[in-house]
Amino acid sequence: MSGDWFIADANAVTWILIAIVAFSLFQGIRRGASGSFRQLLFFLASTAATVVSVVLAAVAAVAASPYLQSRLAERELARPASDVSFLGQFGYTALSGLRDLPLLRIAVLFLVFHTLIRLVMGIAANLLSSASPLAVSGVPSGGAVSRLVGGAVGAALGAVRALLLTAVLFAYCALFPQGPMTDYIQHSGLYREAASQVIKPATGNLLEDHLPVFAQAMSSELDQLWQKRYDIIDAEMPDDIAQAAADVTAGKTGDAAKARALYDWVGSRISYDNEKVRVYEKYGEWREQNPEQTFATRKGVCIDYSRLYASMARAVGLDVRVVTGLGYDGRGGYGAHAWNEVFDSGEDRWIPLDSTWASTGNWFDPSGFADTHIRKGGLTG
């Protein structure tokens, strides 16, 4: 290996990797050739079983995902009432998440199939081992030669284990390039050598390029699942909000007309709460408020506008979403933002609207809405 890591490198990662090899070497010497080869066979069998189970579970999950999605869609899950039990709330959120989020659905199916496959493999392995005990013939079982051979096998096993840890660390650095330990890990000379000479050539661009993209997509879906809590939190409909929604949409026909009337009302009646933003930015204190509080105080920030709008829209029978992501700040950048989408059954499409920005112009289904609003996972309803 190149570099002077062995003499000068005091990085803990380096010495953990060395310790793994050294411990395996010591175990190999202690076990001797026969025990070390038995350990090697067990390791190879376990590795093969892991690879096979992962591949089979992945194939099964991808194949079963469309079937599960269609079955959940057929059930037409209804949003539970506000007084439903915690299990009822959790069940709705979990099932709707599995229905709407493909990566989450595949991940859950993968875990289920992988657990079942490993269980079956474990039972089969136990039956085979009891029927024909593992034996290693033709290998010396004692003496200096046995210990020498055992040490060599143990060192080889240790090197493989160290490489597996290096691969895990490499994946962590790819996922979290600005992570708290990334710089420290990459300062390990032995890690850099193993990563550049073995891990990177073996994986190509799979870990560095594709793993962060997958993780970001999975994070986006988990964020969507988290946002679905508003469907439960805001399910209770105070009489004053329901009555106001009915009054605002009185005489309006069609989903779009009702949605527009509610947009005009929320956008003109609610004032942006700059003090709430100031307190959060200066002290890190977030003042959570529900739609009833927003309705009573007539003040809020974008998520409060959106939650109140969603509550009023549901009160008059509209299918509505709360969406979170990034909104254009007018200065060339984007900041955290929330808005709504309402389903227009007449046109069979979702109408985007931003009641928070209503005072600055028309943000009810304008052309180019997606140019100023970037969804980043948050979506409920």
UniProtKB/TrEMBL annotation:
Coiled-coil features, chain-numbered ranges: none
Domain (Transglutaminase-like): residue spans on this chain: 294-357
Keywords: Membrane, Transmembrane, Transmembrane helix
Keyword Ubl conjugation: no
Keyword Transmembrane: yes
InterPro entries linked to this entry: Papain-like_cys_pep_sf, Transglutaminase-like
Entries under SMART domains matching the protein: TGc (SM00460)
Source organism superkingdom: Bacteria
TM helices/strands, residue ranges: 12-29, 41-65, 107-128, 148-175
Protein name stated in the entry: Transglutaminase domain-containing protein
